[in-house]
Amino acid sequence: MKNNYLKYRGFRLMRICMLIFLVGITSCKKSFLDVPEQGRQNSDVFWLTAEDAAKGVNAIYGNLRSWENTAFPAIAIESMGSDDAEKGSSPTDATFFLDFDQFKIDPAQGNISGFWNGQYRNINYANQVLDNVPTITMDEDLKARYLGEAKFVRAFSYFRLVRAFGRVPLRLHAPEDITEYNIPQASTEEVYAQIETDLTDAAAVLPQTYPAADKGRATKGAALTLHAKVAMYLKKWNDVLNYTNTVMGMGYGLLPDFEKVFRLENENSIESVFEIQAALVPGNTAASNSQYSQVQGVRGSPGGGWGFNVPTADLAAAFEPGDPRRDATILFRGETTPEGDLIPPVGDNPMYNQKSYVPFSLWVDRFNEGAQQNVRILRYSDVLLMNAEAANELGNSGQALSSLEQVRARARQGNANILPQVTTTDQATLRQAIYRERRYEFAMEFDRYFDVIRQGRGEEVFGPKGWRANRNEVWPIPQTEIDLSGGVLTQNPGY
After folding, report:
1. Is 0.85 topped by the overall pTM?
2. pLDDT in tens, 43-102
């Protein structure tokens, strides 16, 4: 009972913190997150008006750029196990990353709890909207959209959790008393089923586009694309093909220059399906809280990046000769960027993640370096490559080759001497070509690790690092959560 009480108190505190956060946050050049400072607001006078509903939904987006969602915990769980990334920084700094890199992880390691708690905080915020907004008297279409946005984020966070841990507690409402808090893990099948339900609901009510003031919110295209990705993990190839075919008819496209996809001027571009929104708000360091770029920034550079999560030599060697995505993905020591920044020719790391790079001239003293950098979550090239994979798995090599070629043609950038067109119609050979293309296209975007596992190639690709089948398909459940649950939660096999 003591453990239940402690967790209940912690949850009640989280609910109070959300109310403070959602009425107090000032954030972003994205105006839908720009909520004026109003101080504290008690829960008994909240969730009454359309303005309260807007604040609640905006708080969900604001939390997505938190440390747990985009910095060390996310790097540890979603990037460090892959063959694309390694610890970086100085040899003695944050050595716990080596435990993730070498699959020697202790279930009590803090970043496991950090990632877990970050996702459940997102879910808690979404659940409060879903529990309370339906009773508010307001425009019904806007209400439906808000609920769709909350369901999209809840689905996104549960997808991150189920990929990382497998069986997790499935919480669909904010608990009101102690008996509702300490719940057991649901099966992976149950979690995936709820994710799919949420995304179906979201796609039915979310708009395809927003006016400028609301750009960056979850759209119908985002819900369908995430649903396609979930279906890909479940090998529901007909669903993947149907969802991606629909998105391919919704007006998205590829920017001509791959390197420019990740620059500030192209945030929420025609290629963007969903991004975590961030900004540097002058005079407000608290609102400029994203550390996604800072922790991966060039160590020893003028702005003082931390230099973690750096590309591996294996990744650098993997690209096809002449593929411009190699140079657009990796900042090499001693190079000068297209924006004119010299990467220090000496230092701890030979390479850094260029996709998280923000030009040094845009770093502002006393703010997190690169705080204005959005995090790309879903891009149109992913839609095309999921479409290619599904079409190939269903025996339609013609469509698979067409979608694959769109991605390669953009990377080729008119240079016919590089990246020859893939022409094979052999299913197994084409499957491997699509797998390779996913690596080239999405390297350092926190996708490779779980992509390889869902392809069934974990031991083949990560085995030299220490990955073992029937254990490392998932990370350990945080030991702190097991202890606080009084044994209601159980550990994953092998940990």
Report:
1. yes
2. 568 999 999 999 999 999 999 999 999 999 999 999 999 999 999 999 999 999 999 999
pLDDT, tens digit, 9 for 90 and up, residues 287-336: 899 999 999 999 988 867 999 999 999 999 999 999 999 999 999 999 99
Identify the structural domains of the chain with CATH numbers, from first to last. 1-206+464-495 (1.25.40.390), 292-373 (no CATH)
Other CB atoms within 10 Å distance of the CB of residue 14: 17
Instruction: Please list, residue by residue across 147-169, b when 16 or more beta carbons sit within 10 angstroms of its beta carbon and e when fewer do.
Output: bbbbbbbbbbbbbbbbbbbbbbb
- The total of other beta-carbon atoms located within 10 Å of residue 175's CB is 18
Locus of tokens 């996104």: 156
